[in-house]
Structure formats: structure tokens, C-alpha cells
Design goal:
It is built from five helices and two strands, in the order αββαααα. The protein has 110 residues and is mainly alpha-helical.
Length: 110
């Protein structure tokens, strides 16, 4: 289940705005998450139904965020990447491309 933050952010972005902590705040008083404050000019606070409509997209965003984090650890530090690129150029090989392709195939996005 996507978080309220993710679904609210998607709603804001779908309406050509950007997330701004000074314009919106979320809260949970022990009875579930809700939008505590909403101060976007020209954009009405979303209804529960509007927020719920972003569930599928929110799940995909959150899943892909986790996949991105995993990929970042598997791509290796930039120094090792640069070494692979240098050796590929010197030797006419594709080690770096092959490595990146493997990381992506091992961790596909939804």
C-alpha cells in the first residue's frame, strides 16, 4: 500500500505543482495518516477518492525507489566504474556496459 506522502506528491505533480513542505503537511494522530494543512494556490485539497486513485501509481513509484537503491549499491563506486570505462576504451571491450546491463536485468523496474 502506497504511503499518503507518495500519493499526495503524485497528485500535486499531476497538477503541475511541486511538493513544498511549507504548503502541505501530513500527520498521523494514531488513527491513520491525513493531510493536516493544505495551502496550494489554485489547487484544491484532494479528496479521499482522489488520493485513493493514486494507489497503483504510488505502489509503482515506491517499488521503483527500492529498486533504484539496490541498483545504486550494485553499480559499484564511481572510481571502479571509471576504471572499467578506461579499460574498455583501451582494450575495445564492453565490460562496463555488460555490468550495467546485468544490474538492470537483475533488478527490473515495474
Amino acid at each position: 500500500m502506497a504511503t499518503l506522502f507518495t500519493k499526495t506528491k503524485l497528485y500535486i505533480e499531476a497538477n503541475s505543482k511541486t511538493w513544498d513542505d511549507t504548503k502541505v503537511s501530513l500527520q498521523n494522530d494514531g488513527f491513520g495518516d491525513y493531510i493536516k494543512t493544505w495551502n496550494y494556490d489554485g489547487l484544491a485539497k484532494p479528496t479521499d477518492e482522489q488520493i485513493a486513485s493514486y494507489e497503483t501509481a504510488g505502489n509503482a513509484v515506491e517499488a521503483n525507489t527500492g529498486i533504484d537503491a539496490t541498483r545504486q549499491t550494485q553499480y559499484l563506486p564511481w572510481q571502479q566504474q571509471m576504471e572499467m570505462i578506461y579499460k574498455d576504451q583501451k582494450n575495445g571491450t564492453s565490460t562496463f556496459k555488460d555490468h550495467c546491463d546485468k544490474v538492470r536485468s537483475d533488478n527490473p523496474k515495474s
